[in-house]
Here is the input.
Amino acid sequence: MTITPEQTTPPTDACVASIADVFDPVFSRLEQWADLVERYAARPDSVADRAELDPLVEQLVRREFADSDGCVIGAGFVSAPHFLGWHLAWWLGGQNAASQGLPATGIRHLETVEDPLKESFRDYTALEWWRVPAHTGRRHITGPYVDYLCTDEYTLTLTLPVYRGGTELIGVVGIDLSVDEIERDLVPRLDAGAVAATVINASGRVVVSTDAHLATGALLRLPGLTERLADPTPAFTALGPDGAHSFQWCGRTGLAVVAGPAPS
Amino acid sequence: MPQSIRAGSGTRAAIFAPLDGAGRAELVLQRLTDAIVLGVLHNGERLPSEAELARQLGVATVTAREALEILRRNNLVHTKRGRDGGSFVTFAGGGATDLQDDRLLAWSRVQVRDLGVHYSAIAGLAAELAAERASAADIANLERILDRTDAGTADAARRGQGTFRLEVAALSQSARLVREELRLQAEFGSLLWLSLREPRRRERCRAEQRETVAALVAEDGARARQLTVSQITESIEWLIEAKARLEQKGRSTMTGSTSAPVPTGAPA
Here is the structure.
């Protein structure tokens, strides 16, 4: 690919839309899960019970693993402390490093410490995948990050808040995606002509880039980028020195595409 | 699920992460011994069953059984039969010094130094990358962890240092570096930071952690790496001096300036 700065153009709408196409179906499934959990929680005259809800979630998760071609490495529902207590109805796939002992088709329930008095207890409501969707009420993508507590994998976590009666937060549903697998999916969609195209998350961290100098996980440092990331306006914006870079949000994913001349 | 927010939970998770490669029984044994001696697993705590342990570590049940048997022989766990039975940690900390001293005596100086070189390569580059890749939120999280870390006892300081190094490694965004950091901590963590037995070293370690965070904030990767490597080098040199003292005194005690037995329980 020849790179000539003069040819810099914004990524096409089709390119940006096709990035969103990778994540939107995952969020659609999360919306179905949220809906199911919500309906379970809203049954009149009955108390929510993890022994009932967990098998329901496991069924959904099992189907997700079967259909995902290895992209999904973990999935489930995480309860708000006042709903089922501190509880993760979360399963890991047979593909990832943490479950090598399992057959490739198996899934494994994530064992966690749910007693807040124990030393190794984790208050997950302080973590980004809980905190952000709980605060905004909207879908969120956390990462890429090395999930060393769970799978040791390089991960993107997609989460969606679940409400009872429209207002009471009872938990989040989520899916962990392998960054390795996502890269395979995203790179072909980034062919934005004679420019370097980079997908970043809402913190400016690189998810994937066609610029070999920009590693996944690095922070993209560009004048004006921080301000632009704070602004949800969907329109194209020119960024960087001489406005040679363009910025656009990828639909409602919380990811953005930055295109510009690749550094020589 | 990202990032520990409690000191020690990361290293704890590492104990039950799967093992691979040769010498699994030995690795299971070493990892559990370290965890018990280090106080990550507490006195009186019930270990997972043989089958559960085997499943979590990804080894054969017989391998897990073998490791538990040796732990029993070493008086680090005892097994109760019956409905409330299982294997329980029986280690209140008094013997930690002896156990680590045995290990230090068994290692040659060359091996101790080489461990330092290996660990410096991993932790040094992790720190350098972290300076480039840490966001403001990552730094805030790291500072929160430091604020919560208690450096009052050798155990707490070691756990704190383990958590700190692991968090820094995670900021490198490299899964390989994180795995290697976890492996090195699980296998050698208790030996590597033996120098934290001394209160003066604990204070210094804390100051160095703060300086490392300052280097990350300044996006000064070279400084972050240099701080990390010099901290490891100092710890290794302390080990070699301690080893020399041990050799001189034969098998007599090595208490240094802290003579109190190291408690394994987590401070509140």
Observations:
- The first strand of chain B starts at residue 77 and ends at 80.
- Residues 1-9, 254-268 of chain B have pLDDT under 50 and may be disordered.
- The beta strands of chain B are 77-80, 86-89.
- The CA atoms of residues 7 and 214 of chain B lie 20 Å apart.
